[in-house]
Here is the input.
Amino acid sequence: MFVVAFVLKMSSSQMESLKVIEKFDEGNFHLWKFKMRMMFSKHGLWKFVDGNATLPSEKVTRVDYNEKETKAFALLCEHFTNVQLAHIQYCDNVRSACEVLCGVHEMKTIGNKLFLRRRFFNIKMQEGDDMLVLINMVKALVDQLCFIEVNITYEDVYMVLLMSLPTSFDNLVTNLESMSTKDVNFQFIVQGCFTKCPKKKNVKVSRLLH
Here is the structure.
């Protein structure tokens, strides 16, 4: 059965009441997955995802079961962009859809590892971008790389952060270059970056994904 058949069973007002997190596209799948688990749990639907839901024998309760499973599937679909929906459009239920998604975004293949490593080592911040967005982007990519068993050291993390900074941070980078790696950690660099960076609103960090 097509995904659209499940989604159409819920009214727009019902779906709006459930949409509380951003749609997933190509960001931090692991953080997004955690948020979705909390949402499913909040609405009593997680058992349909983890396989603990059992189909009751009574007709009345079967109807309720089917409605909740449909609701869980529709909720999942509402939190994807069209690009991501293409992966699950032929799935029959929310559990199989989640298994497909994990297979796509958590593959421990050489290609996936190479793709994420390129993203990680080519992060760039433009003048005027939000420092907090940059920090979160670095941390999110570290999480994804660690999950697929790519060895990322602490030194890799703060070196990537320093290399991503625009020229207005050159003085900070120069000062840190003279310090021993034993005296520097990620939090120390982050504090230095925020000290040098004026507060910005509604801006995004640019990424070079060559």
